[in-house]
């Protein structure tokens, strides 16, 4: 049950489009809040709110450079989602293989 709740919370966190956009920007490289604000349609308080949620979920960490907080992506929690999705990949792969075979037979 604990693992289910953890997955559920992570799915809820990444379900929000602005947070996925922030994750995508941090995937490229670490960034400051100011950079994230410039590259999004959100205000500074909006970006900070989403970063707090991502940090609480374990998806980002921070470091300090002078006066700036630099945010870094922690992809490890996403591995949990990848592991959860694995059986479904096989399911869809099997379905697509069956569709391909059906279409080949139709020709």
UniProtKB/TrEMBL annotation:
Highest taxon above the source species: Bacteria
Gene3D superfamilies associated with the record: Winged helix-like DNA-binding domain superfamily/Winged helix DNA-binding domain
Any GO MF annotation of the entry: DNA binding
Coiled coil: none
Signal peptide positions on this chain: none
Domain HTH arsR-type: 1-93
SUPFAM superfamilies noted in UniProt: Winged helix' DNA-binding domain (SSF46785)
PANTHER family listed in its UniProt record: TRANSCRIPTIONAL REGULATOR, ARSR FAMILY (PTHR33154), TRANSCRIPTIONAL REPRESSOR SDPR (PTHR33154:SF33)
Protein name: ArsR family transcriptional regulator
Organism whose genome encodes this protein: Peribacillus glennii
């Amino acid at each position: 049950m604990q693992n289910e709740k953890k997955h559920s919370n992570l799915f809820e966190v990444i379900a929000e489009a602005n947070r996925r956009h922030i994750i995508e920007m941090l995937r490229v490289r670490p960034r400051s809040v100011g950079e994230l604000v410039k590259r999004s349609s959100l205000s500074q308080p909006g970006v900070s709110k989403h970063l707090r949620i991502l940090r609480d979920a374990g998806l980002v960490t921070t470091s300090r450079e002078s006066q700036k907080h630099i945010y870094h992506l922690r992809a490890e929690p996403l591995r949990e989602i990848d592991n959860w999705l694995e059986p479904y990949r096989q399911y869809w792969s099997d379905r697509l293989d069956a569709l391909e075979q059906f279409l080949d037979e139709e020709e």
